[in-house]
Design goal:
The chain folds into two domains: about 180 residues, Rossmann fold (3-Layer(aba) Sandwich), CATH 3.40.50; about 80 residues, UDP-galactose 4-epimerase, domain 1, CATH 3.90.25. About 40% of the residues lie in helices and about 20% in strands. It is built from twelve helices and twelve strands. Helix 1 packs across helix 7, helix 3 packs parallel to helix 4 and helix 6 packs across helix 8. It starts with a strand and ends in an 11-residue tail after the last helix. This is Nucleoside-diphosphate-sugar epimerase. GO terms for molecular function: aldehyde dehydrogenase (NAD+) activity. Pfam families: Epimerase (PF01370). One of its GO terms (cellular component) is cytoplasm.
Length: about 300
């Protein structure tokens, strides 16, 4: 298939691009700069210039493709509501462009559901709707098009998509631990995060493109729920630092922007995803990556 990928130069998107190309698909990656275009082309894909704010460019990329994999998102925590509205507009424009053609539209989402404290399954619908909701309500926006000639699929990624080079949540926790001389967790550390290795996540996206039915939700989750105090302990043990609790009211001051997430439960089942896609995670666990030094450069100036 000829696949238009947004976020093709990102942490997950670059791995997805490699996975698609390795299995015979043609990739056109959205690129907002000359540097990004060069990075896309260096992987063997074609570059399509544009950005999430350039709706005409998104429409043109989607119109020319057999499928769309939308992985880009503006993670601007200083204006998260604005990022959600941008997402809503971008997804709306691409869906309107391909509607009626039965083309796949795969969209990156998360495990946030309001169902804190219980295992989220693929049958659980997202409660978020509308441009002013989390991530612009884009998961429901996409899945609502499943009955309108779009093979829409929600890709729900674990909180930690880990591996060497990851600059996400675990890298930030490692950076904070180095700054404070101790690896912290929020409250009693009983909150849990799901995790998946980057290569396993990329393979899941490719399988979802090839197999997932319209209207489905798939969980890019290998480890369904790791306790936050165990994550903190793994970081602390590797760095030779103590592990300490941080009061919930002090979490944002201690951890920065990630403090609002680290004390939340984000756990999910992968049973239905494995069954439907024939997907079996084979990559290292999060704790194996931490122990192997995947985050040693976190906080080190580039």
């Amino acid at each position: 298939m000829h696949v238009f990928v947004t976020g093709a130069t990102g942490w997950i998107g670059s791995a997805v691009t490699d996975e698609l190309l390795a299995h015979g698909h043609k990739v056109v990656g959205l690129a907002r700069s000359d540097r990004a275009a060069a990075a896309v082309e260096a992987r063997g894909a074609a570059a399509h210039r544009g950005s999430l704010d350039d709706l005409d460019s998104l429409a043109a990329g989607a119109a020319a493709a057999d499928a769309v994999i939308h992985l880009a998102f503006n993670h601007d925590f200083s204006d998260y509501a604005g990022a959600g509205r941008t997402e809503h507009a971008a997804v709306t424009r691409m869906l309107d462009t391909i509607e009626g053609g039965d083309r796949p539209f795969l969209l990156a989402s998360g495990l946030a559901s309001g169902a804190t404290g219980r295992l989220l399954t693929e049958d659980d619908a997202s409660p978020f709707r509308g441009a002013d909701s989390m991530r612009g309500g884009s998961e429901n926006l996409a899945l609502d098009h499943a009955g309108r000639g779009v093979r829409a699929v929600a890709l729900r990624f674990a909180a930690s998509v880990h591996g060497t080079g990851d600059h996400g949540f675990v890298a930030q926790l490692t950076k904070v631990a180095k700054q404070h001389g101790a690896s912290g967790y929020v409250g009693d550390g009983s909150s849990r995060w799901a995790a998946v290795h980057r290569t396993d996540a990329a393979r899941l996206v490719r399988l979802a493109l090839e197999k997932a039915p319209a209207g489905s939700r798939v969980h890019a989750v290998a480890e369904e729920g790791l306790r936050s105090r165990d994550i903190a302990a793994a970081i602390g043990d590797h760095l030779g630092l103590p592990t300490v609790p941080v009061a919930p009211e002090d979490a944002e001051a201690h951890f920065g922007w990630i403090g609002r997430f680290f004390g939340m439960d984000a756990i999910a089942s992968n049973a239905r995803t494995r069954e439907v896609l024939g997907w079996e995670p084979t990559g290292p666990t999060l704790f194996e990556d931490i122990a192997a030094g995947a985050y040693d450069l976190a906080g080190v100036p580039e």
